[in-house]
Design brief:
The protein is mainly alpha-helical and 98 residues long. It has 4 helices and no strands. It starts with 7 loop residues before the first helix and ends in a 23-residue tail after the last helix.
Length: 98
């Protein structure tokens, strides 16, 4: 059928389409890794800067791609203190290039 519409599954865009059409109440719920993630110090948590790692944590580092985290942060303006960025991804203060 040449006139048939492609479904998200047919185009390979299922995860992205699901995230956009489904409304979540918190940024971290919007993450495609949320259901299987074990990171306690999540950059998509509003209290990210107050959260601590624990020695018994199975995962200590966020594995969500930066582009995904930034897109999620844009859906929740003003909620995330680091806009979904990890410490190594954030611009540093001070005088650059001098």
């Amino acid at each position: 059928m040449s006139g048939a519409k492609k479904t998200p599954a047919a185009t390979g865009a299922g995860n992205e389409t699901e995230r956009v059409t489904k409304k979540y109440t918190t940024p971290f719920e919007s993450c495609q890794r949320f259901a299987r993630c074990a990171v306690n110090r999540c950059p998509l948590h509003p209290d990210y800067l107050k959260l601590k790692d624990h020695p018994a944590d199975r995962e200590r580092h966020c594995k969500a791609p930066k582009a995904d985290r930034v897109a999620i942060a844009a859906e929740f303006p003003g909620v995330l203190p680091t806009n979904g960025l990890l410490p190594r991804e954030r611009p540093r203060g001070g005088r650059h290039g001098k």
